[in-house]
Records
---
Amino acid sequence: MQERLIEHWLDSINERGYQAAFLQMLSGQGHTVIHSTRHTAIEFGKDVVSIGPDGVPCAFQLKGNPGTRLTLSQFREIKPQIDQLVEQPIVYPGIPEIPHKCYLVTNGEIEEEVQRSVDDLNRGYERRGLPANTRLHLISRGTLLDWATKHSTAFWTENFSIHDKLIRLYNEDGHGAVRLDLITQGLDEILKLTSEQSNMNTADIERRQISASLFVAFSLRNYVKEKNHIAVAGAYAALFVALECALERHKAREVRSIRHMAVIARESFFAATLDLAEELGERIERVENKRTINGEIDYNVIFLAGSPLSNYFLWRVRALIAVALLSLINIELKRCTSPAFVSGNARRAIEILTRPGQSDFFLWGEVRFPNILP
């Protein structure tokens, strides 16, 4: 049952849907993830950059072929990106200046014609005198399924409680609020947050953190497919808190090697909030394009969805959550030493919607009671 649940997840998501889980699996394989972005390649076709267990830098380009195959025609379309992935060196802080390994990753199968083309491509790189590391390697559905199963299910409880939670989350349509009750219960079981067991060794804690992180990634399948960015952000915020609590609970906070999963969870949270900012920016652009000459723009209309009755009660709630998340992005951008990639639409949304006075929000108590403090 475990493998079937994971297989169902892997065969139903695109590359953006499995990227967070891929980072967690890479950590389980001994890699240290240096950089990952869901919005643009870091440079020259590289979606993920890591340092392998042998100390050699690795670059990955992710493609989505859920339930299908990577065909020769698709491979030819991305050939320029592949050449950049292989031939252009990685220039990033913390990456050794040595030739890097190159990987094309897909969650689908790979046609034989593509594999032969990759062999021909690598022979061409060799004839041109490129370093031995600089060859294209393929990671496909079978490898991802093996990694996901190995790193996720080792600590799933024998009473099938985790399986039950995943099935219930798979049955969610992905439109509403994320079922944080199910997710936090599952995290508690895997990470032993409320268990009396507190003498786990470092390796055990690290494996449990990877298992917990993959459980959350699997749980979000439908929410990712429906582009429910607020739900995804909420789940990864819960994961980050649970991972930090696990380090404290099991007295492992000082062990730097096992803090990496919390970093990935944090980055996944901000990736989801940036997706939200991008979508809001696109809505703002549509609203501005409909503006009449000298007409004022009410940006709050971008929070309207559904029936007029539900909008009357819920638009302010939607706006409050969205502005809160955009404010966190704004704070993060200001504190980052190296600027993160943020699209023009996302920056526009952050600038407009976090502007003082753009939307008025009131606490319940401010409505019921007079303000008696100076």
Note: The chain is about 55% helix and 10% strand.
---
Amino acid sequence: MAISRKTVRVLAYGAIYVFWGGSFLAIRDMVAVTPPFFSAAIRFFFAGVALYCFSRWRGSAPVSRRAFVHSLLLGLLLFACSYGCLFWAETRIASGTAAVIAAMIPIWILLGEVLVFRTQRLGISVAGATLLGIVGVCMVTRSIGLEHSMVSGVLVELAGSVVFSFATLWSRSLTLPEDQAMRAGLQMALGSVGLIVISAVAGELPRIPAAFAAWHWHTVVSFIYLVTCASILAFTSYTWLIHHEPATRVASYAYVNPLIALIVGVALGGEHVSALQAAGAAMIILGVVATMLSKSKAPIAKPPAADSVAAR
């Protein structure tokens, strides 16, 4: 029996909401026993190779040299830098906190469109969204205390989110594979190579055998979840939605994911959400909503290409 389009739509939204929202706790579970950069490397290597092979099996054309080079540069920024920061940060901060910080990405992207690319106009909504987001981050940071390791985790993830936003905007002017699965798979696979190099420089490789020996059943489940659900299934769902749903509606994952992550972190990870942290999360989510509304109303000078890779 064929599945109706409405059912596919519900399943696709459920995938990007739940799978991406739950990925933050899975990351924290992995980095609890496995070095962070190596954890990110193996996640994106397996997911990237799987997506690339699937794309080639489906009949996608080989990648040109120019597209390969641009995919390499973008993969290093998005995965080696941005995701490397996220995985490292989650060795120091709770998964819910990490998800709330990551929700700032649409705000950074909007600022880049206004200040750098000039594809959006500066207005009250942009200034208000930015202010809400920054105040929210300050509240979240204050809520977890001023312990150096935690503050460094927040700052490193903020830096990674800015890199992710810049790479997303830059990708619009690059030559990338037409096929979305190949585009994401190639960037993931090439980015994983950069993560392996960072892992080696950080001195993680000698600790890998002991880390694998310390894996529990839930670590294995988290790894499989990150590769299959949070990378392959969520991304293919996102790609389908981008082609069948309004972009602003699809972008709703940006403020749903932190809520899912906070709920999952409390329910399954034993994390605690203080009143101040909840208020800060609400401020950031309001800022993201304002960002989406301003982008849907403001005229765009040049229609952007689909962003390279969607989310966490």
Note: Residues 5-297 form one domain.
---
Amino acid sequence: MIERQLAPANASVTESAMLEAFGLSTMREADVLIKGDFGAYQMKIAVEAKDERRKLDLTTLDAIVQKYRGECRVAVDRIVVVSRRGFSKGATEKAKALGVELLTLDEAKVKDWFSETPANVRFESKPHICQVVFDPSPEGVEPTSLLSEGRIFCPHGHDHGSIREYANHVMFCHALLAEPGKGKLRELEEAIRGSPEGTGTLTADFERQGWKVLYKGTEHAIEKMRVVLHASAAKGEGSCKTYVRSSTDGSTRVFRHIEMTAARQRVSIVMPVDRGVPDKITLRLDSVHPHEKRNTASIISQ
């Protein structure tokens, strides 16, 4: 069987795997799902196998890709298509552009999947509240702490919860369900998928005359509130290097250094390659373009 050639002994292999798809109540089927360690990562590979009389063409490839990269997609880390007869020129070009791996049956039988670290890295974060700005701004208050620890009260004295809870409520239950906010979220998601940096924001302004923010026992009067929604969907390049460290007692230890860039962030990870759980992992996260303006959309003030 193809899947037994692709996966090592410690991998989980499921034939005709039924998987959840975004926005659908029905499950979608993958010919084969392989779950296991790819270098330093736990990842999922979807394998679609086609045994046709001719080379797999662009139309067939598009149908496969749509299942995993379309609007109601199944979430996997890598797509592999195996065809006994190979692939047409159009299918090969499209697969290369989308990062889909194509293999003939003979290539699949000798492929060593789990010795690799993925060359392409996908980073995706669903729309979430990243910032709430008040006017006037509460003095001497750290914005991040205010978002999680502060509480907001209406002019009648009712406690409307933490600032993060209230911001989520007014954004997702009101601003994005009414005109002109309706449809803006989908527009933002589509825009960031087509943008080079793969990240963007959506803002909404709310008049809040007479409202108050309570933070660590101190009340702060506010007049306006701006809620900023952030989302990311980006693909970047990843690289992996292996190092061997020798100790004075003659022992050696192998380390893997993984670097990747996606969604305007550069991630660097250093970790030992020993079996079992690593005793230490070093992670560094830097903004690639800290002063570059994000894609931003706005909703009319409410």
Note: Helices lie at 2-6, 58-69, 89-98, 105-110, 143-149, 163-175, 184-193.
---
Amino acid sequence: MTGRGRGQISPLFGRIAVKLGLSTPEAVAEALRTQEEIRSVGGTPPLLGRILVESGALNPEGVRRILEEVEKRSLVPEIPGVVDLSPALQGDRVLVYRGRLREDGRTVSIRVLRFGLADSEEEVDRFLDEIRTLSRLHHPNVVRVLGAGDIEGIPYVIEEHVLGPTLKLLLEEHGALPEERSLRIAREITAGLEHAHSLDIVHGALRPESILVPRLSGARVTDFCLLGCDAAGFDPGHPGFDALLYLAPEQFQRHGHPSVRSDIYAVGAVLFHMLTGRPPFRGGYREVLRQLLRRPAPDPKVLAPSISEASALLVRRLLAKDPGARPESMGALAGELAAVENDRAREAPLRPEGSSLPDRLRPRRRASRLRD
């Protein structure tokens, strides 16, 4: 399933720039001619906003205002083959909509890449090529990709609809999750990522927003980072800044790229957040980046004293600055998570919460229901 052809975002961007009085019709027309000249010799032109800024006909704040106006106009209803579209979520990297496939009435989710994440037509093409790679993923802990295309040059992905909140919303509502549930969610997303890695696909920007937590099935991974996964993609004004809180340090080094071990770091950062109610590092962009590169992650047991020492040790290992100090693969991590869960299961009867008596001897009227 595909959308429209390349280059159609530029006239729209230009019209809005002129309508808002942020650029002149003459400057926009000249920039459009520049794009066509580059295409005529087989080149890939930059987006119109970049040409206007470099020529002095538009400032960066004007670009931001224009892109916000484009988002307000909601181009999603033009997605071919999808009907009854409605907004569902505004994420840090994507706008999420819900709709139905016209051919069979199936409910789907549509993720539209936020404006500014694809800086050229070449990147839009690369995004769509990589989405076709994601369609090879078939695993119960990965949201299935059904199609892709672009709307006036803005790429989108059609996915199966999963009923349930994102982990981000769950954490915002409840704060720290019970240790048992946190470990289970970590194990489930690890299984999904192990499948992706077996196909040479890394996530690159795993974070609570890219994890869905259905009530009746295991956690599901979505929103694989196909563009902007290096340091330049997460500056303070860039869509996706929240992902910085879960990226591995090496992704911010020169020529740093996502890898198996950076995904493992991200699982550790997400697990840290689930256990403690906060990400490993907090603050503004520069402060977070300085801590990420120079300071060890806080001990989760200091922030959440009730968690087991085994969980705390594992999290600290996953958040090691040196990628080689982390587990070598998602399969190895899955084994370590299972070992921690088994240790807790063996210890639980010896240390029931709130009492030193075995569970079978505790008065029923005082027994508390375990939180899922």
Note: The chain has twelve helices and seven strands.
